[in-house]
Structures are given as C-alpha cells and as structure tokens.
Amino acid sequence: MNLIAYSLGKDNVKIEEPFKDSKYTLTRPEVLKSSLEIKDLESGDSALYFCATSIAQWNSSASQQHNNLIIAERDDTISHLLIYSAL
Q1: What does pTM read for this prediction?
Q2: What is the C-alpha to C-alpha distance for residues 50 and 61, in angstroms, rounded to an integer?
Q3: 6: Cβ–Cβ under 8 A, 6 or more apart, which residues?
Q4: Which of 9, 10, 46, 76 is deepest in the core (most CB within 10 A)?
Q5: How do residues 19-44 score in pLDDT, each as one tens digit?
Q6: In the chain, count of helices (H) and strands (E)?
Q7: What is the DSSP letter of 62?
Q8: Contact 15, 4 (CB under 8 A)
Q9: Long-range contacts made by residues 58-66, C-beta under 8 angstroms, separation at least 24?
C-alpha cells in the first residue's frame, strides 16, 4: 500500500513522493469535503484507492457517516485525512 497524499486540515494538503508534481491533486476546501483528482488516466493507474480519517484526540463531538466512511469530528476539524492506493 502506498501513501499518496494527506491533509491536516482545511486547505492544508501534501502529496507524497513519488506522486508529488505528477498527475495527482488533492483538494480539501472544507473540513468534511475532499477530493483526489488523477489526470490523464492510464491503465497503470488502475488500483483500489482508500481514504481514511484519524483524530488525535476525541472531544465528544458527533460522528457522521458518509457512504460507509465514518468521519469523527473534533471541534469541526479532522486531524488527518489519508489517501492510499493498493495495487
């Protein structure tokens, strides 16, 4: 499994090497909204892509479920957003 990108908050994203400066773009315009764009798709891009979230500290906020992905909130922030691919 390869880590492609991660985000530590709204508008705070990082693409990992060797994916940096390539066809991968991660955006996170809001805490609960993010997207991964892969430009110029090729057959070699075929993979199972995973999105995972993590919180560093729980603060009794509500959890929401979006398309079977549970997103836990901590003061309206999610500490980590991770994008992986499994070839």
Answers
A1: 0.64
A2: 24
A3: 13, 14, 16, 80, 81, 82, 83
A4: 10
A5: 988 899 999 998 888 889 999 988 98
A6: 0, 8
A7: P
A8: yes
A9: 64/32, 66/32
